[in-house]
Amino acid sequence: MFEDTIIAPATAMVKQAIAIIRMSGIDGYKIINKIFSKKVTPHGNQVCYGYLKDGNEIIDHVILVCFKKPNSFTGEDIIEINCHGGVLVTNNIIKLLLKNGARLANRGEFSQRAFLNGKLNLIQTDAINNLINATNDTSAKIALNNLQNKNTHLIITYRNQLLDIIANIEVNIDYPEYDGVCDLTTQELNQQLLGLEQKINDLVNISKVGKMINDGINVLILGKPNVGKSSLLNALMNEDKAIVSDLPGTTRDIVEGKINLGALTLNIIDTAGLREAVDKIEQIGIDKAFQQAINADLILIVADNYEDLINLNPDLKELIKDKEYFLVLNKNDLFVPQSQTDNLEQNILIISALKRDIKALIDKILNLYNTTQITKDDQLVLSNIKQVSLLERVANAIKNAYNNSASGFPVDIINVDLHEAWEILGDIIGENYEDDLLTTIFNKYCLGK
Ligand SMILES: Nc1nc2c(ncn2[C@@H]2O[C@H](COP(=O)(O)OP(=O)(O)OP(=O)(O)O)[C@@H](O)[C@H]2O)c(=O)[nH]1
Ligand SMILES: [Mg+2]
Fold first, then answer.
1. Residues with beta carbon inside 6 Å of ligand 1?
2. What's CA 11's distance to the chain center, in Å?
């Protein structure tokens, strides 16, 4: 339990109708009773109207929303002061609270207290952060799903499954002669390890998609000069962001834009046209275009004729080898109906950036990142990069354990990796069950009797 009482504005410090200042901690009621016009006693959740005063001077008319511990966000007494918005009033109330014994909270300190007081685990505190920062509906839905206890419980379920395996192994190591223990055959052990590794890898994979959706999908536009790359960026953004001209080599640097497609956010990157550079500057632009491919999630190869799309230059072919890409045939409005577009390969998208006729492309992108599975109510998706990399380590450790087991290594060697996997799963939700590990072993097999 914390000894001090923290405060922070929960709304932005701007001119607005109402501002909220949040206070959490042991002295919340004591502080409020020094400055509020009525006596507030801690009982249940309550709303009180009155005014705040500094001595005899009225500072503002406010509404207090009080949550009595432990039924609050942080698990401590929380009082939220709804005051008139405006930087001056809000600041005056903050000063008044500081003068009467509160202290300013650090960034995220309310969530930190919620975690340390056992109200939320690390996935849930992260989910709140992601919800606030969400730039598309999918991110927001993922964050809301992750807030649910039953979803984060999946990590605990995997952890318990590991614990079961470890417990079985440890019993065999420490008490080989003990009778009441059912032996885990190597075959059963291997099967369990493979099953668990698969489930964790599935979670890693969907989490990587979740991370990409949270950050925005990096869509790189590449192609020869004058094919309409900048026009496509403008059409996607529905504004004239990049310079467009009929002179080949118009774009020389990277031009970036962000759009929200509802379910997805796209970070679009327009580049210099790829050709034999006519000068040093253009060459730098072309080099930059190629470098962008490293971080691209999706590459749009744009051309204004069919032949260029089916005879990609070798550098471009190499670049998209391991990447997600679409072939985009632009300037559809110029084609003689049914001539050039006849017999096109299925995977070529036909658009007209000039006419802003790009629906086929947008539909294809929305289809590629189909969000049906990822937004299911009961789907856990870890979108924090640290959590995802921890999860990958868990999968690796289980894989090592499986390999060692399949190669016939002794169980105590297998156990080292399993312990590591179990510990890391605990790190993901911010738990440490070292004592519980022992308790589980002994409870399960009644060895103490
Ligand atoms: N008819 C027609 N013209 C288009 C279309 N898209 C682009 N253009 C024209 O093609 C020319 C080149 O367009 P840009 O968007 O500047 O082409 P770019 O690929 O960015 O060219 P660079 O920056 O030089 O590499 C301009 O005159 C555009 O108006 C289209 O769909 N139809
Ligand atoms: Mg351009």
1. 225-231, 244-246, 248-251, 272-273, 330-331, 333-334, 352-354
2. 23
